[in-house]
Every structure is written in structure tokens, then in C-alpha cells.
Amino acid sequence: xxxxxPAPVATRIWRARRRHHHxxxxxxxxxxxxxxLVFRYDDRxxxxxxxxxxxxxxxxxARRLADLQRAGWTVHW
Length: 77
Description:
The N and C termini lie far apart (41 Å). By secondary structure, this protein is α+β, with helices and mostly antiparallel strands. A hairpin with a 5-residue loop joins strand 2 (21-29) and strand 3 (35-41). Helix content is 22%, strand content 44%. The chain has one helix at 54-70, and strands at 11-18, 21-29, 35-41, 44-51, 74-75. The protein has one domain. The protein has a 5-stranded antiparallel sheet, covered by helices on one side. The chain is globular, with a radius of gyration of 14 Å.
């Protein structure tokens, strides 16, 4: 009997809310030691970007959160 590896677990970095909607930034390990930064709008994946390392993905998510906060979104966990 063969066993398959479990799917990589996504870790939510932040959640922003505005007008009864939410936007989540999630970090997922990907093949080859890379990371995917995934954005979900109301639990629907809207975009995913690959990054070569975790630090760059987290920095990009932080920059995008700052942009959202300037546009009126609030941080909510």
C-alpha cells in the first residue's frame, strides 16, 4: 500500500476587513523549497505568486497590507 504525502498546509499571515468582506494573505510551502503567497477574497483564491524564499514572500505580503490599510482596510484576525 503506497502512502501519499499530505498536502502542504497554508499559514495565514494576515486578514484585512472592509465593508463586510475580508482579504487573507496565506503562505504555502511549494516544491523545491519555494513558497507561494496566496490571496483570498471572501475565501475565494484570487491570486497566487511564487517566491524563492519565505522572507521575500512575507515582505511582499506586508507591503500589500500597508497599501490596503492606506485604502481603508483594517487588520482583523
